[in-house]
Amino acid sequence: EDQVTQSPEALRLQEGESSSLNCSYTVSGLRGLFWYRQDPGKGPEFLFTLYSAGEEKEKERLKATLTKKESFLHITAPKPEDSATYLCAVQARNQAGTALIFGKGTTLSVSS
Amino acid sequence: SAVISQKPSRDICQRGTSLTIQCQVDSQVTMMFWYRQQPGQSLTLIATANQGSEATYESGFVIDKFPISRPNLTFSTLTVSNMSPEDSSIYLCSAHRVNSYNEQFFGPGTRLTVL
Fold this sequence. Notes:
The complex is a heterodimer of chains A (112) and B (115). By secondary structure, chain A is mainly beta.
């Protein structure tokens, strides 16, 4: 069964304290791994898509990496505005061909 | 990326009634989806809205409970029928455009409370 597990569930950081969020997955036929940011009361905001082991993508203070079994979202010198829930999803093959299977997310709180 | 709007943004409904949620994308997209996000849970795919044909439902979701329409490439509706308190959730519309980013983007969601 296709599955995505994110850890930790919650993470509290001080401003400037770098850390990483983990997303481990099991899926038959990975077509892509997605990272989203979700603020309270809003829909998920697309951050990255990764396709193959060894791939890395960066955006401001965020860098996403991918291995054959997991992905990491590294946050360098976070600021309070980085506080949000970060969602990981894998794109697998469903009947329609492009389903996303989501993890439960990691809620990040950054204090100044 | 394209912009998705949903109506209504929230609603409080009585048990046994139905609610139709509208989703509008500001440009043509290849695929549209409906997800549910229950408190403390992952986003779960309900169905893929197919343009001009019947939606494709995921395991555990049926057309009688969640009828979906997609009359064109930018618009879709999801109806939550014969509602019960267990249907209280956030319903999210999503769209996929095949481009260099392989991006699947989301609307702001509809927060539904069933009393």
